[in-house]
Amino acid sequence: MEIVILPDSAEVGRVAASVIADVVARKPDGVLGLATGSSPLAIYEELARRADAGELDFSRMRGFALDEYVGLDYSHPESYHAVIDRTVTKPLGMNPELVSVPDGLADDIPAACAAYEAAIDAAGGIDVQILGIGANGHIGFNEPTSSLASRTRIKTLTPKTREDNARFFDSPDAVPTHCVTQGLGTILRAHRLVLVAQGERKAEAVAAAVEGPVSASCPASVLQLHEHATVVLDEGAASRLRNADYYRYTWANKPEWQRY
Fold first, then answer.
1. Active site residue 136
2. Where is this site: Part of the allosteric site (predicted)?
């Protein structure tokens, strides 16, 4: 993995957005993997700024969201259908017909999951997958103990994840108990991965993912198996890394043309 440590969340967003922008510029009809949550918001804000400035055109890009709650109406502001539309599709000027989100309201959830996998394959796979990381090491909604080879499926959310997400709902009890998520095996099939994390609250999970063993106990550690994964951190999220000085040195001495 390539580890990039930056001063603050704004720089995290700028550098991660530059990775995405490079893909869009080279392949304007490519495929983006879209994460929700607070971690990638700085990326989307920077990409929207570049789109508004005429530097990027997302109108032909396809998008596949990582996950969706089960049983939450899509009109709910915290459904990921609504969040993706609000924070990604509209600000970036993407075509809504080209942006897909897992179906958490399907009568046959397993069939809907299989169809989602097939749609990703039909699009030629995901060119660059954006990821955040949970305090317990989850990516997407792949909670600890998830199979490293898993595909899109229904999962039960841990109490910790529901507690972390309660701030988005009227009460903790309003947080759904289940979700549909791309699996770790699905994520590993993306051509490139970009994970961002900010704040000391994520530091332990980041350290486990980057420098710990590959283990289902820390689902994000599966990124160690990918041939082209970039992890972009602020100082807080990097504070538990043993080799932080080496990562800083490597990034500082990398030629500009190789950075993205």
1. yes
2. 146, 153, 155-156
